[in-house]
Amino acid sequence: MNRILTILFLTVTTTFLGSCHKYLDIVPKGKIIPEKTNDYRLLLDQTSANGKSNGFVNSFGNDVLMSDDIMVTPFSVNFYDAASQNVLSFAEHIYQDFESDPDWDALYNQIYVSNLVINQVMDSKEGTETEKKQLLSEAKVHRAFAFLALVNLYAKPYNATTASSDPGVPLRLGIDFEESLQRASVQDVYDLIIKDINDAITGLPDTAPQTNLNFRPVKSAAYVLLARTYLFMNKINEAFQNADASLQLYKKLIDYNTLPASTLIPGMLQFPMGLQNSEESLYKTTNSSASLFYADSTLIHLYDIQHDLRVPTLYFNDALFGLGFGYISSEWSGRTPVKGMSVPEALLIRAECYARNGKTTEAMADVNAIRQKRFKTGFDYVLSATDPGDALKKVKEERRRELAFRGARWFDIRRYNAFDNDNITVTHILNGQTYSLAPNSARTVLPIARKYITLNPEITQNPR
């Protein structure tokens, strides 16, 4: 059955990323077509990269390099290839004209396999109707997650006034390799994301039966994904409703005081099953690549370093190679940054919605629910706010602390600048040169790799 996974994912890579027509007549020898319901389960359960695909766990990583959470040091610069350095310096082009974009590849790879399941699983053999509907629902959540990432990497932030005309990303909904790759509008992409998640929710179990299966979408995760989607659209009431719906189903938070010491790095704590598989994680997906990330000093200064267990004992370490605070990624400790939905994200979305709706007390209660589990026992963790504006500021800071390097900050910067006029400029120093990205600059939208446009001219480029 592994041949199904390998061949199908390989077909995705060679077909979508090349010309729509160039590879149509190529059918790999020995190709096996999934027929049984369990074949589709195996397709959706592929989680790790095997050299031919990214599975359903590796997702996207350039958002981290675009954000102000990262600092490049003389040591860490050696871990970034030319393309990554182009992202860090907000260059006109990221990839050479012959190079692929790993984020684009991974996400569209997952969309294709999701489409395969969506289009075929209900006609598969041997499985029950309930099993088929669950697989259909899981595939729709996977597809929604991928499209939400794509439209926020390669298109402008959602703007209700212009979304219907702003170019989004190609909407691949089938498995026909002759589909047009013309970019759909931002509005059309968001409409599909919302429809997919709403269609999926009734067919999903409430929560994962065990944490090592959290790569399978469940209802509590789908609600957070829908809340995230509405938050990116600045639809606060809808975001609140869905974050709250998730928390009504599941709200486990881990007390960091109970975590054991790391067996790899002295002075640090570790999750026994890894951060990706913690009981707080509702949907397991991670960075598209592993690098050594150093946290910017502005991020570190947001923490109470003496009492907050997130730093330096869990998220960061101040003794790594003697080069200052650094976020330790999978190359060093198995902590690949988690990009999927979680209980803390649900609480932070609900807190932000409370603050934006003038409910200061409720907003701070959700923030403090997280902080209570993060501070050393016996030390004051409680934050208070004088008014809704102050509450929103504190929610934003807590969100940055809690979700550091987990797929939130770059998208938050874009929406804070677009909706709140926060006027955040991102500055990176790289190889002795300073690069700044102004709020709402055209370069807050990543360029589409030239390789894809050359092979598929209907894909228009983003202005730079």
Characterize the structure shown.
With 464 residues, this protein is mainly alpha-helical. It contains 16 helices and 8 strands. It has helices at residues 2-16, 37-44, 62-66, 82-88, 102-120, 129-153, 186-201, 219-232, 236-249, 297-300, 330-333, 343-356, 360-372, 388-402, 409-419, 450-455; strands spanning 70-71, 167-170, 183-185, 294-295, 316-317, 326-327, 426-430, 433-437. Strand 7 (426-430) and strand 8 (433-437) form a beta hairpin. It starts with a helix and ends in a 9-residue tail after the last helix.
Rg from C-alpha positions? 22 Å
N-to-C order of helices and strands: HHHEHHHEEHHHEHEEHHHHHEEH
Low-confidence stretches: 1-31, 328-334
CATH architecture: Alpha Horseshoe
Q: What general outline do the C-alpha atoms trace?
A: globular
Tell me the helix content: 40-55%
Look at the structure and give the mean pLDDT.
87
Strand and helix map with partners:
Layout: H1 2-16, H2 37-44, H3 62-66, E1 70-71, H4 82-88, H5 102-120, H6 129-153, E2 167-170, E3 183-185, H7 186-201, H8 219-232, H9 236-249, E4 294-295, H10 297-300, E5 316-317, E6 326-327, H11 330-333, H12 343-356, H13 360-372, H14 388-402, H15 409-419, E7 426-430, E8 433-437, H16 450-455
Antiparallel strand pairs: 1-4, 2-3, 5-6, 7-8
